[in-house]
Amino acid sequence: MPSLQRPSGNMEIAAQKRRLEGFKGSGSDLERKYWLALALYAVLGLLVWFTIGEGAVFAFGKPVEIRLVALLVIGSFALRTVLARHADRIRRGGENNGS
């Protein structure tokens, strides 16, 4: 675990920054995980679509298909993943400015 003591020189500050950066994933590693997560969300969506029956539940007095509720939940997780990636890009200063 990195020490939280106050470094006394510039070299110690640089060494402490390098140690703390080691706990974060690299940009290419995060990019790979992002695309893998989106692919898994798509697979989950397909599984939901083909495995959940055509039953209905009542929401606000109207019938809604159960599979649509499950797809909405998975879609919200996918949206959260996309927004987290964009927020991370903004925090990093806009590097890798692809879409």
What is the subunit organization of this protein?
A: single chain
Order of SSEs: HHEEH
The total beta strand count reads 2
- Strand content range: 5-15%
3D shape: elongated
Q: What is the overall pLDDT average?
A: 81
Distance between the termini: 36 Å
**Helical stretch tally:** 3
Kindly state the percentage of residues in helix.
Answer: 55-70%
Rg computed from alpha carbons, rounded to a whole number of angstroms: 21 Å
The side-by-side strand order for the widest beta sheet comes to 1-2
What class do helices, strands and sheet pairing give?
A: mainly alpha
**Main β-sheet: number of strands, strand sense, barrel status?**
2 strands, antiparallel
Uncertain ranges: none
What layout of secondary structure does this protein have?
Layout: H1 10-21, H2 27-51, E1 56-59, E2 62-65, H3 66-91
Antiparallel strand pairs: 1-2
Helix pairs in contact: 2-3
Explain this structure.
By secondary structure, the protein is mainly alpha-helical. The chain is 64% helix and 8% strand. The chain has three helices and two strands, in the order H-H-E-E-H. It has helices spanning 10-21, 27-51, 66-91; strands spanning 56-59, 62-65. It has a two-stranded antiparallel ribbon with strand order 1-2. Helix 2 (27-51) packs antiparallel against helix 3 (66-91). The longest helix has 26 residues, at 66-91. The radius of gyration is 21 Å and the shape is elongated. The model has no long low-confidence stretch (mean pLDDT 81).
